[in-house]
Amino acid sequence: MFFHGTSRVNERGHLEIGGVDVVDLAKEYGTPLYIYDVALIRTRARAFKEAFKKHGVKAQVAYASKAFSTVAMVQLVEEEGLSLDVVSGGELYTALKAGFPPERIHFHGNNKSRAELEMALEHRVGCIVVDNFYELQLLEQLSRERETVTDILLRVTPGIEAHTHDYILTGQEDSKFGFDLNNGQAEEALRQARRSGALSVLGIHCHIGSQIFETTGFVLAAQKIFQKIAYWRETYGFVPQVVNLGGGFGIRYTSEDDPLPASQYVENIIEEVKKQVAELGIAMPEIWIEPGRSLVGDAGTTLYSIGSRKEVPNVRHYVAVDGGMSDNIRPALYEAKYEAVLANRVLDANEEVVAIAGKCCESGDMLIWDLPLPKAEAGDYLAVFCTGAYGYSMANNYNRIPRPAVVFVENGEAQLVVKRETYEDLVRLDVPLRARVRK
Ligand SMILES: Cc1ncc(COP(=O)(O)O)c(C=O)c1O
């Protein structure tokens, strides 16, 4: 069994996180419950920042808030001195509510609405990552109306797709995001933006994939980008102040995953950018990255209560929990794998291999297919590890299941940072039928 961060087994044989017994948390806040190990988030954030600092490279580490966006989380990001990547008016609103400095916010998205762009301009976010020609023209128009020059990055697709250990080189990447680097779109975007006078191109952005365990993809992406920069400098005199290589740094969900330390990703990226810059004889740009999962993924644990069982003789033992795809859709969506323990009997010997079922009316609502556990009974608690990224942020009300509460734990203290939804919350936006005259 592998524990992350401050997780450990206490003298009662219970799982403890941040110095707090999770069984006590279940009793106080109910289940399902998302529990975040704040110290581990801080450790992860500092590791990325320190790696740049060690090499004296100017950088911004922007937390990709799509992984888990709440006011408290954004405040924690601010405490750690990171920047913030938002992809919607809602994430931007959350950041502003949290008091996050707008100048350190980067606004992403492949279909930002006029209202979202206006909101970003009104609050003077640090930069807008422009994704397509429609946005380029809209942003130019809005900037001109405000008589302002807007800092932008151009999001490009470098023709590299990376997932875990695989990276694929594609001539023309089939992606809904960004300007293609190979077919002339990125160059045309650069020309249009620079001609506009209302947009200032700070640099180039790319994001090559997710849950990546090797640095090759990032190095290749940097090479592709600098090949173009060499030409753009010759042709247009363009030298980027910023090169943003996105997020996607892998984490350990199960014992099969073997992620690299943050420092390794950062060092290899710096090494390649320095090499490219030296060959071109241009000033070193700032390097920006956007980790999401790798900042919060393994810091999150979901605690469930176990309820019903179903035995299918000689086939499977189903053990059902009081949540499922409503609080963690990743297994259903991507066949994501997780590990878990009985939080109230961590040291008991495993006696059976069970399948953990959610409570949603969907056969695919299975959280874990083969989990060795002690004989689990109703009333036991199951702790599923590494649910901190894309768990709460993708949570939904399927079957009208209220979304769970979220607690932060640190130094023996727990703080409720998102309240559990109530049934009343579920119908808050519903509008009843108008009274009708019955025939
Ligand atoms: C542009 C961009 N940046 C950063 C991220 C964060 O990725 P991860 O959570 O895998 O680090 C994503 C994820 O989709 C993304 O699309």
TrEMBL record:
GO terms for biological process: lysine biosynthetic process via diaminopimelate. Keywords: Amino-acid biosynthesis, Decarboxylase, Lyase, Lysine biosynthesis, Pyridoxal phosphate. Residues 34-388 form the Orn/DAP/Arg decarboxylase 2 C-terminal domain. The keyword Cell wall biogenesis/degradation does not apply. The modification N6-(pyridoxal phosphate)lysine is found at K66. Its cofactor is pyridoxal 5'-phosphate. Residues 40-296 form the Orn/DAP/Arg decarboxylase 2 N-terminal domain. The active site is at C361 (proton donor). InterPro entries: Ala_racemase/Decarboxylase_C, DAP_deCOOHase_LysA, De-COase2_C, De-COase2_CS, De-COase2_N, De-COase2_pyr-phos_BS, Orn/DAP/Arg_de-COase, PLP-binding_barrel. Pathway: Amino-acid biosynthesis; L-lysine biosynthesis via DAP pathway; L-lysine from DL-2,6-diaminopimelate: step 1/1. It holds the Pfam family Orn_Arg_deC_N. Homodimer. Specifically catalyzes the decarboxylation of meso-diaminopimelate (meso-DAP) to L-lysine. This is Diaminopimelate decarboxylase. It comes from Anoxybacteroides tepidamans.
